[in-house]
Amino acid sequence: MFKGLIGETMGSLAHKIMLDKTVYHELNNVTIPTTDGTTQIDHIIVSRFGIFVIEAKNMNGWIFGNEKSAEWTQSFPGGKFKFQNPLRQNYRHTKCLSDFLGIEHNKLHSVVMFWGESTFKTSMPVNVLDKGYSSYIKSKSEVLFTDDEVEQIVTAIQTGKLPRMWATHKLHVASLKERHASPVASNSLKSGDPSCPLCGKTMLKRLAKKGSNAGNEFWGCSGYPGCKGIVNI
After folding, report:
1. 225 by DSSP, 3-state: which?
2. Which of 47, 101, 104, 181 is 20–30 Å from 216 (CA)?
3. How far is CA 205 from CA 111, 199, 230, in A?
4. For residue 57, which of 37, 43, 75 has the smallest C-alpha distance?
5. Torsion angle, alpha carbons of 135, 137, 142, 145, to 10
6. Spans of the chain below 70 pLDDT
7. Under DSSP, is residue 188 helix (H, G, I), strand (E, B) or coil?
8. How far apart are CA 22 and CA 55, in angstroms?
9. Residues whose CB falls within 8 Å of the CB of residue 29, separated by 6 or more in sequence, listed in order
């Protein structure tokens, strides 16, 4: 938790030093209610060029991962540590915030920023960074919102977010524990259909039509193609 707090603090400092406050409006450590509990977002930057949703990681060592894998690996002398794919983690954040604000999901930009002494040992998507943080944000130049809309979005987040207090933290931790339990055991509805591990929507039983799993059934998110969450049967 302490290392995570350092990463969030470094991100906040970067905003203040490198981004124009009149253009990029910063909100930090935001917890919002969702249909299945809560979600906590490290940083939100609202601008005319979209809403940037930032997942901050403060890690050392070598980082291995790719866009599709469920888990990434942190490696350092003496051991390895598995952690959740931060792109999947942040996809949920962007979907929840999109639903919360009633704004099209394609107007939100997912960014994963690694602070600390880490080194990527596999090729990473362009929105997974260990440098060039402000440059990446400034590279988005298509105007998506008016100045009035930016102000309305900031106000909506500020008024709708849960208060920053210990009770909110406890609520979020409880939500995480419930959501990351067995998808079928704890997230299933009475019908037996599980909830999507990415966005929380009900999943539907589907049949794989191609690839090595052709002919096999699997759970697919009812929000497809907007959400591509799957659970193997």
Report:
1. coil
2. 181
3. 31, 17, 10
4. 43
5. -150
6. 1-16, 164-193, 197, 199-200, 226
7. coil
8. 23
9. 8, 40, 41, 42, 164
